[in-house]
Amino acid sequence: MAKQLEAATEGGERAGLAGESAHLLDLAERADERVDAVVVLDFGAQYGQLITRRVREAGVYCELLPFDAPAERALALEPRGVILSGGPNSVYAPGAPQLPDWVLESGLPVLGICYGMQLLARALGGRVAAATRREFGPARITVTAGEADGGVFAGLPRELDVWMSHGDRIEALPPGFAPLATSANSPCAAMARGHLIGLQFHPEVAHTPRGKDLIRNFLYDVCGCRGNWTPANFIEAAVAEVRERVGPDARVLCGLSGGVDSSVAAALIHRAIGDRLTPVFVNNGLLREGEPELVREVFGRAFGMPLVYADAAGQFLEELAGVTDPEQKRKRIGETFVRVFEAHAAGAGPFEFLAQGTLYPDVIESATPAGTRTAQTIKTHHNVGGLPADMRFKLIEPLKFLFKDEVRAVGRALGLPAEIVDRQPFPGPGLAVRILGEVTAPALATLRRADAIVRAEIEAADLARDIWQFFAVLLPVRTVGVMGDGRTYAQVCAIRAVTSEDAMTADWARLPYDLLARLSNRIVNEVPGINRVVYDVTPKPPGTIEWE
User: How confident is the model at residue 22 (pLDDT cuts 50, 70, 90)?
Assistant: First the structure.
């Protein structure tokens, strides 16, 4: 059996990303039917988290583990299958990550993707070598397998558009394997031997249009999964986990921002322990126009629990004075949040636990899975890497293995109103990471007004539901302009609008030209101190959604 979930230990120390800790889905003692699970082993893939997301979209629970995680850590999930991610290495290169022995010894179905396929081939006696022509980008494969061969191509057309990203290829199949598909540059674009399957292309990306069907075929036809990963069973498991961790008497503070993540976390914990939860809404002075009032009104109407309001705007501005480095901003904000919570705990306590709405992407970007040597930290999230080492609380993060769309689904299942569940993501550090350079009261006032215009115009254009995030950024750059008959020398405002499914990857939104023209005209005319507007057309990667 998997151990019980432990979100953090004394002193604010965290359990590993997918934990030597346990898993929210250890339902063996809490439900009649255990939730099916699949393990994804990360070999440094660009799309590792996306594989995890695709599996969950198919109704199967999944966790991403480092390739060298101990066997017992992976097998504790009682997985029905293993997926091997891609990676940047060549399997024959010295020191390249290799296939752990336990994967084949377990007898579980295996799906190797790109590097994962090459690992399978090499481990089982095949030959992998550098391709004469590398394949990066769109390609078309021809399926040569019959309906029963491999299982993953069942019900799919014989010609498929896919996304390739590899410099090596399989020159000789391992004994007993049959080719399932070919491409112009890969005589073996897919292979199988029973429940061991390899794909040279990436089924998890949107550029492989039928990739979700391939993954679903592996999960259901090959692994025998039942698709029983649902919001309802997550809630059941998480509520039981919170009750067990908190115990019968301890009390919990919940840092509430009014966004979907912290609101769902609060509702979930409240279901578990009732009035032993005290939600605290901290106005850090870094919120958008009208937001403090909106959060207090909506929360008071939608939740049956008292909300403690803490106005700490001055305290946060003092801590941010003179700070320009974005990592320092995030860390100072994270520490200040905790100090504010500690002050409230001292007056209304005792509180043993602090609850946060941390999500899987937050943890992934802040600290890669323990043991993964093939990736690096992108940025510290204020509620992950920004917490002080001497924090007196134990952490509870019931959503830390969920993606944003899963959190929204859980929120709906908990009965939260649409104005909370469908709210646009907003970073915990707030406008501090949308002001490049020092955060000051005048800069916040300027950015708030510009941001309000961006939100109002995009919502009026009926595009808000189609865009993941849209906001303004204040740049530490001044440019010359002309207004009336006079010269201006003022700041630049950037507009950022992106489409995304889970914030792990994103593309810039193709806003209509007339909308961009209205945004520029209104910001320049209505916001003193800004005389130029630019539009950010950088996808993620290589950029991030936020500028800091």
Answer: very low
